[in-house]
């Protein structure tokens, strides 16, 4: 069974696990509900999750190889209880070695970090996706420079994992401008989201669109720096030539945010 790949929105800091006061209290409810239901939509329960977060960059693609990764509370200014969250999913040194070897075999610079923990782009959404923390999780870094072609290539190299029961997930945000969460940006976010969704759906033009994503409407207002979009490049690359679909959409903090699925059959009501 070949698993699809995903790009998921991971919200704002620990937003799912605190009273939200920076807008309506239900701002993140739809995103949380989608993440909670994600595993149930898969053709089989994953044996492991390989996740790429927008919060880790290295000179080479680097995979976390700790058997018991700690949590990295890399957010600031949130309530004290959000710094006591737990997520005890085990790592998998074996999967980490496999990831490194696949990347190296494709000619990509690859390394391992035996101590790296899970940053909030990992543990915050995965606490919803796997609340029992019973699926091993391995995190892969972005590569410095954030070159779309390199991250597409990394996804292609990792595609065999989909047949080995590994769910490949990119964790970021489809709109990520810290000064661009306001009604003044709603229409711009809708335009960028529509362009992105159309481009990702068509596997015959997806790679070209990803490589030149910054030419999309309001692209640099959506992502002044693309670290929160680059995880999508890996997820898309791992399903090269296969269908993509807009799997989730909501308006949060006055802008459109979306999630995407690649490599699963597209049904008429998708």
Automatic annotation (TrEMBL):
Keywords: Dioxygenase, Metal-binding, Oxidoreductase, Zinc
Domain called Extradiol ring-cleavage dioxygenase class III enzyme subunit B: residue spans: 38-242
Cofactor: Zn(2+)
GO molecular function, one term: ferrous iron binding
Source organism, top-level taxon: Bacteria
Pfam families linked to this entry: LigB
Matching CDD domains: 45_DOPA_Dioxygenase
Family, similarity comment: Belongs to the DODA-type extradiol aromatic ring-opening dioxygenase family.
Listed name of the protein: Dioxygenase
Species the sequence originates in: Phenylobacterium hankyongense
């Amino acid at each position: 069974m070949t698993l699809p790949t995903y790009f998921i929105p991971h919200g704002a800091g620990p937003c799912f696990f605190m009273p939200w006061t920076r807008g309506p209290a239900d701002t993140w409810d739809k995103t949380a509900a989608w993440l909670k239901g994600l595993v149930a939509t898969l053709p089989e329960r994953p044996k492991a999750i390989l996740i790429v977060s927008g919060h880790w960059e290295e000179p080479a693609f680097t995979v976390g190889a700790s058997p018991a990764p700690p949590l990295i509370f890399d957010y600031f200014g949130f309530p004290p209880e959000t710094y006591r969250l737990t997520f005890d999913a085990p790592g998998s040194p074996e999967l980490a070695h496999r990831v490194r070897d696949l990347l190296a075999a494709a000619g990509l610079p690859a390394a391992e970090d035996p101590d790296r923990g899970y940053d909030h782009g990992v543990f915050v959404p995965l606490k919803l996706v796997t609340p029992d923390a019973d699926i091993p999780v391995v995190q892969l870094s972005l590569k410095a420079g954030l070159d779309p072609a390199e991250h597409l290539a990394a996804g292609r190299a990792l595609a065999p994992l989909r047949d080995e029961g590994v769910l490949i997930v990119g964790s970021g945000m489809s709109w990520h401008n810290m000064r661009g969460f306001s009604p003044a940006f709603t229409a711009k976010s809708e335009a960028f989201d529509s362009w992105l969704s159309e481009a990702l759906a068509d596997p015959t033009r997806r790679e070209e669109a990803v490589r030149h994503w910054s030419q999309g409407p309001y692209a640099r207002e959506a992502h002044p720096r693309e670290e929160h979009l680059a995880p999508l490049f890996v997820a898309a690359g791992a399903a090269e030539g296969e269908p993509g679909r807009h799997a989730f959409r909501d308006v949060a903090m006055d802008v459109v945010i979306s999630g995407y699925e690649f490599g699963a059959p597209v049904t008429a009501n998708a």
